[in-house]
Amino acid sequence: MVLLNHLRKKYKVLRDTSISIIETHWSEHSDEITLIRNIVFVKEQCVPKNIEMDGKDVDCNHFLICKKNEPIGTARLQPGGKIERVSILKTERKKGLGTKLMKFIINSARKKDLEKVYLHSQMDSIDFYKSLGFKTKGGMFQEAGIKHVLMVMENE
């Protein structure tokens, strides 16, 4: 909780209602990214911390979405096009912010000339990803004790 308060003070420089999204690196924003993922995945979804923090972060491009310059969500993109760790704080969900974050990531992936982007969607998020243009491939599987399905978006 001390870290959360520190981050809130650190990012309350601007007092507007704007939403901003940045592409960043683990070395620049690991505290903010870790905080959000710990809240969403480890605390809310009971994903073991050793699975959540898998050692792949240094090799990925990261995305941070902020409201009033306060971090409220994150995701990462692996070099091969896999989008992972998409997370928005509970108080900020159902406001269209996940859509904004995903569109930003998809646009970034297109600029990198990736043939496709793909992800492992939790079952209750399938419709969300379909609305962005992803298609399901294959059957359901377990990941960190949670049911998932592979979803793919081909680069047009």
Describe what this molecule looks like in 3D.
With 156 residues, the chain is of the alpha+beta class. The protein has a single domain, classed as Gcn5-related N-acetyltransferase (GNAT) (Aminopeptidase). Helix content is 35%, strand content 33%. The chain has a four-stranded antiparallel β-sheet with strand order 1-2-3-4, sandwiched between helices. A three-stranded antiparallel β-sheet has the order 5-7-6. It is globular, with a radius of gyration of 15 Å. About 7% of the residues have low confidence.
Keywords:
alpha+beta; four-stranded antiparallel β-sheet; 5 helices; 35% helix
CATH first level: Alpha Beta
Structural class: alpha+beta
Could you give a short account of the major beta sheet?
4 strands, antiparallel
Number of domains: 1
Oligomer: single chain
Instruction: For the record, give the distance between the C-alpha atoms at the N and C termini, rounded to a whole number.
Output: 44 Å
Instruction: State the total count of DSSP E strands.
Output: 7
Strand content: 25-35%
DSSP summary: helix tally: 5
Weakly predicted, low-confidence segments: 6-16
CATH homolog superfamily: Gcn5-related N-acetyltransferase (GNAT)
